[in-house]
């Protein structure tokens, strides 16, 4: 099969915001406890954080981590996680029906994030709380000194402000499962007042308003329009959440789900632009796709969880090769929309629907989905180029005319190179992929690696990294043309040095 992509140096989409390679740590399951944090583990540091996990998080190179939830957030008192650890309360977490002992809180998490080179994206509880707690946490984190909360931070051991730049105004407030769920009117008013006051405390912060918790929500679109009536001029981003799964075991439809992500992004961007027009605003709102991933393997098992356990294994999806291919398609889709999507968080980071798994007291390992994310987060920087892909297509149950080849090209001006990510969705056919790099002067292929040749249901375990990338051969450049062989069912990353 043949496919062709043409890019031109002068036709660009936007520069990649590094926060597009964000992640998410929620206080739930084994994400924090026996995930990133396990005092007594042989690699634990003096505060109890696992060094072996830190190493893999650094390798993944996530730039930005949303914290502390998620559904957990809507019942969380941030003050429970500060001050002497021995005096912190044990609380019932009604979102996941577990027990939270608050051993890890704001200071510990921000310190850990610094060590893994990630910026913290703090979320505030708008389920059970409101303006008062919102202004106080900003003062605690970002005000230098000389006020009650800033001095309390200093007393608790952190002299300099945490200087947290990006804040989420609640989580999935439209969902009936949310503690303190709200109507769009209720949430819109509350979010706008919190935003106003938070920015009075620190005018340099940026805010994310809650969009619908999924596109399938009956209130989708009207929720966005209503809450933006209240918040448009107060916030910089609107959130999107979406999880995908292959419940029907239909590979063709499954791998086409990035088309759904693309449609979702375009719909939300349109609603934002409608509000911009309605308000005669000069501001263009950006998008924060702050929860996305594959989530379905663990759902059945989680229906029978015993309530009120501490750090039980929940949402522990074990990912296979086909999941890695879809994650590759989703990453390409986010990049292709990087003029609007400035923030995206793969949900989550460790153990809970995560690229990294740990065993309590034991090993840490990379799930299959670790690899496309790490490739993108370590290499996908620069300016995304507009493209014109000519690829054979297929029809499937949910989508029509799905291109077999999904791809994006990025021009890294600083490194003087082009990075191309590509997925071949075909189960049977290799693709001769021709890429015309108009206006560039390509010198040579410096790297070509792929994830291919695995059983679609193959998974990684602590003992075997069955699904892992390998170096590929056969990519050549001549004049301004790159010839790239794409194996059937493959994720590919290519780097081309420019003259
Ligand atoms: O990431 C798991 C959960 O999915 C989050 O807590 C919630 O925001 C979403 O429904």
Put the structure in a nutshell:
The protein has helices spanning 51-60, 106-115, 131-142, 148-155, 184-201, 222-231, 251-255, 257-278, 299-302, 321-336, 370-379, and strands at 2-15, 22-24, 64-67, 91-93, 98-100, 119-124, 166-169, 206-209, 237-244, 286-294, 309-310, 341-346, 356-358, 364-366, 383-390, 393-394, 402-403, 405-412, 417-424, 431-438, 442-451, 470-471, 476-478, 481-486, 490-498. The chain has 499 residues and is an alpha/beta fold. The relative contact order is 0.15.
Q: Could you list some keywords that capture this structure?
A:
8-stranded parallel beta sheet; TIM Barrel; alpha/beta; Immunoglobulin-like; single chain; binds alpha-L-arabinofuranose; 499 residues; 11 helices; 2 domains; 10-stranded mixed beta sheet
Characterization of the model:
The strands form five sheets. The chain has a ten-stranded mixed sheet with strand order 22-21-25-19-18-15-1-20-24-23, with helices on one face. Strands 2-3-6-7-8-9-10-12 form an eight-stranded parallel sheet. Helix 1 (about 50-60) links the parallel strand 2 (about 20-25) and strand 3. It has helices at about 50-60, 105-115, 130-140, 150-155, 185-200, 220-230, 250-255, 255-280, 300, 320-335, 370-380, and strands at about 1-15, 20-25, 65, 90-95, 100, 120-125, 165-170, 205-210, 235-245, 285-295, 310, 340-345, 355-360, 365, 385-390, 395, 400-405, 405-410, 415-425, 430-440, 440-450, 470, 475-480, 480-485, 490-499. Helix 5 packs parallel to helix 6 (about 220-230) and helix 8 packs parallel to helix 10 (about 320-335). The chain has about 500 residues and is of the alpha/beta class. The chain is built from eleven helices and 25 strands. Helix content is about 25%, strand content about 30%. Alpha-L-arabinofuranose (AHR) binds next to loops.
